[in-house]
């Protein structure tokens, strides 16, 4: 992309050969205050592109001082194709991730220049909307996006974190938990996700990614799930579901972490990050900080949480317990994590015992282009109403963002 120069700062694309070590140093020196504090520990160091490389269209931009070539900021962006949850419409969504500015160069407009540059790239690539998330207590970010960049606050989310040593009960004997084939999971999600806001149209790519461990459903033994074991037929399987059922998929970050450990000693890489994570995540682990510094650390992310029926709560709790026990069999896994909208009814069905830790998020959205499919004026008005509501309902949180 074309570089541009303002306020003696050059915004250009990340060059792995010349920038990787400098970006890693910048990440370490930044006061981490992003929505995904724990994901920075496990994914960001050693792989600056990790949170965007699984998307077909992605970019990372850096801010460089013209006078001496010092790298003082970074931002990441990617393109998604998502459903809006109403009328079956799809939109091109640009996402901003991982905005960082060197502490000694803040309050100089560099963050704003990075946002403008990444927005330009996203618009150039067809974005109709741009979204982002930041921690609720990150005042600098919320002011930047809401006051200076005209983003609307749409919803609040909560990241739920639980250590795997939490004592979970075995599911009741009358509840069955079955693993779906990838094709069955794709079919069921596509059939049921239309009611979700911002669900990924490329759900098949997510479920086929090697970091996705699989998809499981739970239902009561007294009700059979038609064609569940017929891996070649999905028609009856989707239509004739039990009266109550639940589903979730599991994403594994532990292997990504191991790649980083080989690059450098954990203490050297994670010292700055731990200042943020200690207050957010580590207290619930009940492990000495020195052990966490020296030992590999990973987590399982639970995504695609969904279900139907009056007894959904019992079934979702059984799946959560199943996932916790499964995490105990994954090497270097310390916690399980999920993210849900505060308005998502499933939030009340996740076991929230004394070991559960929470991080509150805010989602922001801005419309940057009209619809591109058919130019229908009525549809255009509907999408204006979508942003003017300043709130979205239950969302499908994309595990690739972690």
Automatic annotation (TrEMBL):
Coiled coil: none annotated. SUPFAM superfamilies: Acyl-CoA N-acyltransferases (Nat). Residues 373-386 have a biased composition (Acidic residues). One of its GO terms (molecular function) is acyltransferase activity, transferring groups other than amino-acyl groups. Residues 9-218 form the N-acetyltransferase domain. It comes from the Eukaryota. Residues 370-402 are annotated as: Disordered. PROSITE patterns: GNAT (PS51186). This is N-acetyltransferase domain-containing protein.
